[in-house]
Amino acid sequence: MLNGAFSLFLSLKGRRNNAPADISPSLVLNYRVLVIVILAIAAFALLLETFGLAPACFALILLSSGVIRDMSLLQKLIASVLGSALAVLIFAILLAIPVHIFTWPFGGLK
Questions:
Q1: Contacts of residue 97, Cβ cutoff 8 Å, sequence gap at least 6
Q2: In terms of residue numbers, what domain contains 46?
Q3: Contact 69, 75 (CB under 8 A)
Q4: Does the residue 80 lie in any domain?
Q5: Dihedral angle sign, alpha carbons of residues 72, 73, 76, 81
Q6: Is the residue at 42 inside a domain?
Q7: Which of 6, 40, 104, 109 is the most exposed place for a label (fewest CB within 10 A)?
Q8: Long-range contacts of range 32-37, CB-CB < 8 Å, 24 or more positions apart?
Q9: φ/ψ bin of 31: left (φ > 0), alpha (ψ from -120 to 50), beta (otherwise)
Q10: Which residues contact 104 (CB under 8 A, 6 or more apart)?
Q11: Considering the entire predicted model, what is its pTM?
Q12: What is the spatial distance between Cα 74 and Cα 7, in angstroms, rounded to a whole number?
């Protein structure tokens, strides 16, 4: 968390300075990427308690893969499925963390 805050601080500090024209575009704060990553983390936090670990990881990976422009939708879906399966394997099975893999919050189906 401290690393992320420090990175954000340096990005914002560097944005305020008048950078020379030859500066690399990767050193300038990209608001599109920042918004997508924050939304993905927020979606993960909201979905984890409501729907479980697998759907939350799926949404996190699918939304955060939106920052990669040269990746097809099929590749994003495959990465999301494999990433959420890996998260379930690591956290729920191998580490035995008491987290629901899938839950249904609406009560109609149990």
A1: 91
A2: 30-94
A3: no
A4: yes
A5: negative
A6: yes
A7: 109
A8: 32/67, 33/67, 36/63, 36/64, 36/66, 36/67, 37/64, 37/67
A9: alpha
A10: 51, 110
A11: 0.70
A12: 31
| Residue with tokens 């191998």, as numbered in its chain | 94
- The count of domains in the chain is 1
68 in helix, strand or coil?
coil
pLDDT for res 55: 94
* Distance, CA of 107 to CA of 104 (rounded, Å): 7
| Separation between Cα atoms, residue 92 and residue 36, nearest integer Å | 27
Q: Give the closest residue to 55 by CA, choosing from 99, 14, 94.
A: 99
SS3 61: helix
49 within domain boundaries:
yes
Q: pLDDT tens track of the chain, all 110 residues?
A: 556 666 666 666 655 555 555 556 556 678 888 899 999 999 999 999 899 999 999 999 999 998 888 989 999 999 999 999 999 999 999 999 988 888 887 765 44
